[in-house]
Amino acid sequence: MNVLTINTGSSSIKYEVLDAATGDPVTRGLVEDLMTPEAFQAGVKSLIAVSQQHKVDAVGHRVVHGGNAYSDAVRIDNQVIDNIEHWSALAPLHNPRNLAGIRALMSAMPDIPHVAVFDTAFHATLPRRASTYAIDQKMAVKHKIRRYGFHGTSHQYVAQEAAKFMGRPLEELRLVSLHLGNGASACAIEYGRSVDTSMGMTPLEGLVMGTRSGDIDAGVLLAMLRDEFDNVNELDDFLNNCSGLRGLSGLSHDLREIEAAAAGGEDSARLAITVFSHRARKYIGAYTAAMGGLDAVILTGGIGENSATLRHRILQRLDFFGITLDEDLNDSARVSHENRVENLCLGHCRTPALVVKTHEEGMIARQTEALLRLGKPAQFGIPIAVSGRHVHLDRKTFARLFGTTAEPTHYKDLSQPGQYACQEKVDLVGPRGRIDGVRLLGPLRSKNQVEVSRTDEFLLGVDAPVRDSGRITGSAPIRLEGPEGAVSLPEGLICARRHIHMHTDDAERFGVNNKDEVEVAITGGPRELIFGDVLVRVSPGYKLEMHIDTDEANAAELASNTSGTIVYTDVDSATAELRVTKTRTGNV
Ligand SMILES: Nc1ncnc2c1ncn2[C@@H]1O[C@H](COP(=O)(O)OP(=O)(O)O)[C@@H](O)[C@H]1O
Ligand SMILES: CC(=O)OP(=O)(O)O
Ligand SMILES: [Mg+2]
Fold first, then answer.
1. Which keywords appear in this protein's UniProt record, sorted alphabetically (predicted)?
2. Mutate to test the pocket of ligand 2, among 93, 153, 208, 240 (most ligand atoms within 8 A of CB)
3. For residue 413, which phi and psi values (nearest 5 degrees)?
4. Which segments are annotated as binding site?
């Protein structure tokens, strides 16, 4: 499949046609210096011309702000377009251009699929301490004010390349990645996950950029609104278009011109360079402290990849972090599509500083192809289903509890295909107490199985083992009472082991097998938690879903459910992510 990818940044359009199966480029190009609307329109036109010269099966579009609507790649339809538009005010240099590109290419190529890949997706794993601003949280919720983070596709790609270069698993590394282009951001990547990043609710926060201020005292904005500007649009233009390298130098947003002016003795150009580098250095220190260590620093983006002067200013005198910059290696480093990584430190250096040529286009093509092939995004969270206490019965026991002519009555479908909750309920009676009104799940099975939580066991006065569904030999006894009779089961009471139902396609995407044990991290919610010992159950008849009981859900503050029915909760504020870190039990 040939995928055309379009990466519209704030100063350029980078495009490629790639064979997604091999990753080989068919063609690639760069349209630079697109700061004016006219130049941008001309850029889009030239892109359409390129697309007509090659066989293109799908288009992958970079979209900068996905807000909280999308944390994964998505096929573009009218609703997606509306959402991208909705977030445009928060990414004014990007989303409107991303949309213009989408509209132009969709009308030029209406018969092939178009996919959006969001800069925000990789940062969906930010812990709350990093994503939360210190303001009234009611206000934060009302206005969706939080750190979203951007350049995620680039940070993720360069982290993967750095790990490959170092010959170490990404899951063992603490990395600081500096994407220094016309937009610039830092990212703390701890064991493969983004745990902090310098861009915030918008791509305006953090490092000094071509035309954006980055970090600034919010009090300055208040003062300027009071004393200088008549309305918020003027302030918006000032911070997004007239600040950063352009504002500092008074010359240009383009580092090449600033470096030339600084070499010619221009003081404002020198100031722009020192403020830029000082800010970037500070973030290396901050993120090293936040992660409690550092295994490598990565520089990427137009500036990181090309400017030895800025790299020197950012990385010099960091020996106390184990980074000893080798000036010759720094001066001679050249990265390209053929030679993607260069080490700026000598081999024995404890913490390498790596220049990595970013490849957002390749990542976008991969995610586009995966979405279209598998029908779902390549990276995604796992929906969590919270199971309340319930019973499964065999036909004989059902007849004794509900009468010989009774049949289970359908109440509502459950999410696993073919499974349903019934109208019928039974009472559980233990040596210490009883729990009334526990729902029957259908269809009837060959064995009785009663699933309760640890809290329920205390109530009943029983000690049930944690078991996989179906393994009831030697489990605890329990008495069941129904409207037509009672049955004392000698065994069948279990505390269900947490597990994930996966369709075979999901297992392929996650790289796991039936009966593997994995960890699932629940992040982004009010009580983050990692569940270990999670059993993977794979079948073509399953739908992706993790099942936990009410005690476990409460521990992670997911949903409160004590009603005795099954409640299925799609985690929204929290995101569940699979971490395949446990020893595999193998496919037995
Ligand atoms: N050889 C070079 N030396 C110094 N800076 C460079 C060089 N090549 C590109 N740059 C800088 O890289 C920046 C653009 O980065 P890039 O990642 O292409 O931007 P975008 O954010 O539009 O994707 C500009 O500031 C440009 O001056
Ligand atoms: C998010 C952002 O600033 O992107 P770019 O650097 O491509 O302008
Ligand atoms: Mg860019």
1. ATP-binding, Cytoplasm, Kinase, Magnesium, Metal-binding, Nucleotide-binding, Transferase
2. 93
3. -70, 145
4. 7, 14, 62, 179-183, 254-256, 302-306, 360
For tokens 């960091």, name the residue: 318
What integer pLDDT is reported at residue 38 of this predicted model? 82
Query: Backbone dihedral region of 156: left (phi > 0), alpha (psi from -120 to 50 degrees) or beta?
Result: alpha
Q: Pocket residues for ligand 1 (CB within 6 Å)?
A: 9-12, 181-183, 210, 254-256, 301-303, 306-307
DSSP strands (E only) in 333-482: 341-343, 353-356, 384-387, 390-392, 410-413, 420-429, 434-442, 449-451, 466-467, 476-481
Q: Atom of ligand 2 at shortest distance to CA of 12? A: 7
Q: Is 109 helix (H, G, I), strand (E, B) or coil?
A: coil
- Residue 99 corresponds to which tokens in the numbers above? 């949309």
Rounded to the nearest angstrom, the gap between the alpha carbon of residue 242 and the centroid of all alpha carbons in its chain is 32
Q: How far apart, in whole angstroms, are the C-alpha atoms of residue 307 and residue 270? A: 14
- Considering the four listed CATH numbers 3.40.1390.10, 3.30.420.40, 3.40.190.10, 3.40.50.1980, the one that applies to the domain covering 2-364 is 3.30.420.40
The Cα–Cα gap between 486 and 488 comes to: 7
Phi first, then psi, for residue 325 (nearest 5°) are -70, 130
Q: Is 436 an annotated catalytic residue? A: no
CB-ligand 2 contact for 181 (6 Å cutoff): yes
pLDDT digits (tens, 9 = 90+) for 282-300: 999 999 999 999 999 999 9
**Do 204 and 240 form a contact (C-beta atoms < 8 A)?**
yes
244 lines ligand 2 (CB under 6 A): no
> Minimum-distance ligand to the CA of 360?
3
pLDDT digits (tens, 9 = 90+) for 84-115: 999 998 888 899 999 999 999 999 999 999 99
Q: Tell me the domain boundaries of the chain.
A: 2-364, 381-588
